[in-house]
Write a structure and sequence with these properties.
mainly beta, Lipocalin, 8 strands, globular
Length: about 150
């Protein structure tokens, strides 16, 4: 009995000190050129190819147009929030009466290795992502061939 309690205690301590499924990424892990697709089942749906390049200063470009400004070019920025495991993309959408209005997109990182990244759309602070609203699947350039839809 003492052995069982000891083993159980060690197991509980290991869970507390190292939570299961803990993912520790940094923004630097996402820097580079990625190829894949962005898809959605909402608003008529789409499944578009995309190439995304993330730069060290937070600037990004992507070819699908879903995360890019239409009026004010070169205003797009991104950041990774390790606490929420979420990528935040934004760009300047409108300037009206001296006020700046930005378009924001949040994507939870649901799978990430050194060469493969999958993210699901999330509203501002929803506890669960919504892959039916938006999914981004990317493979890092020069590591693995891009996925075929």
């Amino acid at each position: 009995m003492k052995k069982t309690i000891f083993i159980l205690t060690l197991f509980l301590i290991s869970i507390i000190q190292n939570p299961l499924f803990a993912q520790e990424y940094a923004f630097e892990d996402f820097i580079g050129t990625w190829h894949g697709y962005i898809s959605s089942e909402s608003f008529g749906g789409y499944n578009d190819p995309m190439t995304m390049t993330i730069f060290e200063n937070g600037f990004y470009t992507e070819t699908s147009g879903h995360l890019m400004p239409t009026i004010y070019p070169n205003t797009q920025q991104c950041e990774y929030d390790a606490e929420t495991n979420r990528m935040h993309w934004w760009y300047l959408q409108t300037v009206y009466a001296g006020q700046y209005f930005y378009q924001h997109f949040f994507y939870d990182v649901v799978y990430f290795t050194n060469d493969t990244l999958e993210m699901h759309y999330n509203f501002w602070d929803d506890p669960e992502p919504h892959p039916q609203v938006g999914t981004i699947f990317l493979v890092k350039e020069n590591l693995t061939p891009p996925p075929v839809n």
